[in-house]
Amino acid sequence: MSDARAVQRRATLTNNEPGWPTLLCDNARSGGQAAQPWRAPRRARWQISVEGAVRGSPILRGELLYIPSLAGFLHAINIRSGRLQWKFKAAAAIHSTPSLSSGRLLFGGDDGKVIAIDAASGTKSWEVASEDEVWASPVVQNETVYFGSADGNMYAVGAETGALEWKQMLGGRIYSTAHVAKGRIYVGCGDGNIYGMDAATGHILWKAATGNGIDCSPALANDTVFIGSQDFVFYALHADNGTIRWRYQGELGITSAPAISGELIIFGCKAGTLHALDIRTGRVIWKCRIGQVITAPPVISGSVAWIQAGFTFAVNLSDGRVLWKANLGNAVQSAPVVTKDVVYVAGMEGEIYALE
Amino acid sequence: MDRRAFVKRSCLGGLALSLDHWGTSPAFGQDLIPPVPPIHVSEPLGTQVSPLRMPGVYPGRVVEIADARSIVANRVSQAVVARMLERGLRELTGERDLRQAWSRFIQPQDVVGIKINPSGAPACCSSPEIVREIVAGVQSAGVPARNIFVYDRYAYEMDIGSYQALVPKGVRVTGVQEHKLDASGYDPNIFCEANFFGEWETRSYMANIVASGVTKIINVPTMKDHSAAGVTGCLKNLGYGTFNNVDRSHSRPFSFTDPLIGIMCSVEPLRSKAVLHIMDGTRMVWHGGPLTQNQDFIFPAGLILLGTDPVAIDTIELEKIEAKRSEKGAPSVWSRDPASLTSDSAAFYQDAARNLFYRQPHHIAAAGKLGLGVSDRKLIEHKVIHIW
Question: pTM above 0.90?
Answer without folding.
Answer: yes
